[in-house]
Design brief:
The protein is about 35% helix and about 15% strand. The chain starts with a helix and ends in a 5-residue tail after the last helix. It has 2 domains: about 160 residues, Phosphoglycerate kinase, N-terminal domain (Rossmann fold, 3-Layer(aba) Sandwich), CATH 3.40.50; about 210 residues, Rossmann fold (3-Layer(aba) Sandwich). It is of the alpha/beta class. The protein is built from 15 helices and 17 strands. The strands form 4 sheets. A 6-stranded parallel beta sheet has the order 5-6-4-1-7-8, with helices on both faces. A 6-stranded parallel beta sheet has the order 11-10-9-15-16-17, with helices on both faces. The longest helix is centred in the first third of the chain and has 15 residues.
Length: about 400
């Protein structure tokens, strides 16, 4: 699919909120929530950004604001800091952003407060200030009204471009949006359009590939797509809950006991659905979860004791790849196996290559599946690679995202 066709496909999606394109930002301070929750390497004071994908994803919105004469205050969380953990400071993020925009980027000493307010007021047109880690403030995840009000003092306009955090009602994603004119950033808008295009207006056939460890994490998505998809293809450790629900032995494979009943309920629903529901029929086993584990291929799904399923088998991988090739729309969330261990990466790699080569509209729903696409060097071949794992799943389920709902209606 060409880039133009991909844009047309994503435009089938819906977005009912005001865009930053429509905001009057000239000469104003814009407080922009971004998702700079990136991996860091090294130790203080030599910490560096290990993967700048999420920073690059925000650049179109940042550059638009700079071109239109806004002073820009950026806020993001980074990891789960204990108090003010210096290992999770935004300092290396500010450095990397400065390199990408080829302009100095200042780092505030805190998230809010008089000193930060002064720094924000001194910003000139096109200048950028990065606030410290929003989770240094205990009120962030509690959506504390006082913190939201303090954040609002740092800007005249609010822009949310952090799709990866849009499913959380936090002070920087939902609370502050009630204090300022609130618009969607370019990334947030494209995320919602691409995902709702798949959810609500897919070209058919629609193939949905779901992996990962837990059925409960994907339950809402499975139930939604049983009503709308043509095929659902299951991989990852969660397939073993479906096997157990059918009385098939799973050996030492990862099985969440609470998921077995859920898997059984889904299998009952499948009987009344027109959607094809595929499970693996061959597996790759290991004697333990390790890169140097003994490996064997199993031409069925009854895992013997002392072994664990760590990947879909080659026959299943080929069939899943064929289903992707036949699809006009593809949504993938969750790896097919333990792709982080090279002996057990083949199934996930085969699916990733099929998605990348698909002539249809392809969307990868963030999280580990996005990490796999990046690791295999295929990100540029996918029509939309979401920056939000949990947010993409909740949107696909049909849930409202607090960070989106708080924005001005278009």
């Amino acid at each position: 699919m060409s880039e133009t066709d991909a844009v047309k496909s994503s435009e089938r999606g819906t977005f009912a909120k005001a865009s930053v394109r429509d905001a009057d930002v000239a000469g104003k301070r814009v407080l922009a929530r971004v998702d700079f929750n990136v991996p860091l390497t090294g130790s203080v004071p030599d910490r560096r950004v290990g993967d700048d994908t999420r920073i690059r994803a925000a650049l179109p919105t940042i550059e638009l604001l700079r071109e239109r004469g806004a002073a820009i205050v950026l806020v993001s969380h980074l990891g789960r800091p204990d108090d003010h953990d210096p290992e999770l400071s935004m300092a290396p993020v500010a450095v990397r952003l400065g390199e990408l925009v080829e302009s100095p980027v200042a780092l505030a000493p805190a998230v809010v407060g008089e000193e930060v307010e002064t720094l924000s007021r001194r910003l000139g047109a096109g200048e950028i200030l990065v606030l410290e880690n929003s989770r240094y403030e205990p009120g962030e995840t509690k959506n504390d009204p006082g913190l939201a009000a303090a954040l609002a003092k740092l800007g005249d306009v609010y822009v949310d471009d952090a799709f990866g955090a849009a499913h959380r009602a936090h002070a920087t994603t939902e609370g502050v949006a009630h204090h300022l004119p609130a618009y969607a950033g370019l990334l947030l808008e494209r995320e919602v359009r691409a995902l709702t295009a798949v959810r609500d207006h897919p070209e058919r056939p629609l193939a949905v590939l779901l992996g990962g460890a837990k059925v409960s994490d994907k339950l809402g998505v499975i139930e939604r797509f049983l009503e709308t998809a043509d095929r659902i293809l299951i991989g990852g450790a969660m397939c073993f809950s479906f096997f157990r629900a059918q009385g098939i032995g799973t050996g030492d494979s990862l099985v969440h006991e609470d998921d077995i009943e859920l898997a059984g309920r889904i299998l009952e629903r499948v009987k009344g659905s027109s959607c094809e529901f595929w499970l693996p029929h061959d597996l790759v086993l290991g004697d333990r979860f390790a890169a140097d584990a003994e490996r064997r291929e199993l031409d069925n799904t009854a895992v013997p004791d002392g072994w664990m399923g760590l990947d879909i088998g080659p026959k299943t991988a080929a069939e899943y790849a064929g289903a992707v090739e036949e699809a006009a729309t593809v949504f993938w969330n969750g790896p097919m196996g333990a792709f982080e261990l090279e002996p057990f990466a083949a199934g996930t790699r085969a699916v990733a290559e099929a998605v990348a080569a698909s002539p249809g509209f392809t969307v990868v729903g963030g999280g580990d599946s996005a990490a796999a696409v990046n690791e295999f060097g295929l990100a540029a071949e996918v029509d939309w690679l979401s920056t939000g794992g949990g947010a993409s799943l909740e949107l696909m389920e049909g849930k409202d995202l607090p960070g989106v709902e708080a924005l001005i209606d278009a």
